[in-house]
Write a structure and sequence with these properties.
- This protein has a single domain, classed as Ribosomal Protein S5, domain 2, CATH 3.30.230.
- The chain is about 35% helix and about 25% strand.
- The protein is built from four helices and five strands; from the N terminus they run ββββααβαα.
- The longest helix has 19 residues.
Length: about 130
């Protein structure tokens, strides 16, 4: 099997993933998964598509992560891994789609408007 690549995005985070056959090693920006994401909940998010298909020990994953915070990066990586697994075998798609891993979460931060403290918040109104 040749190297399969895929892209995942969430908020401001972008994940580029390269999947090849291997022993289940996940490397992010040259670091191990447990080093890059020390929080077990984030490691779980990243591994969800692999656990759903029960292929955790079959593929080596190399990822480049850029932008956003750690939660957005983990979810971007989850989407990228799910897309790559569908490229590996198209029969994986229904199982991943049922779990919601194939959907790009399009929610982005709304920009701040002039004359307001935040995007929608307004300054306190005073009648007198």
């Amino acid at each position: 099997m040749e190297v399969i690549n895929a892209l995942g995005r969430r908020k401001a985070a972008v994940a580029r993933v390269y999947v090849s056959e291997g022993a289940g090693k996940i490397t992010i920006n040259g670091r191990d998964l447990e080093v890059y994401f020390p929080e077990p909940a984030l490691q779980y998010i990243v591994k969800q598509p692999l656990q759903t298909l029960d292929v955790t020990e079959k593929f080596d994953i190399k990822a480049n992560l850029d932008g956003g915070g750690y939660k957005g990066q983990a979810e971007a990586l989850r989407l990228a891994i799910a897309r790559a697994l569908v490229k590996v075998d198209a029969e994986n798609k229904p199982a991943l789609k049922a779990e919601g891993f194939m959907t790009r979460d399009a929610r982005e931060v709304e920009r701040k408007k002039p004359g307001r403290p935040k995007a929608r918040k307004r300054f306190q109104f005073s009648k007198r």
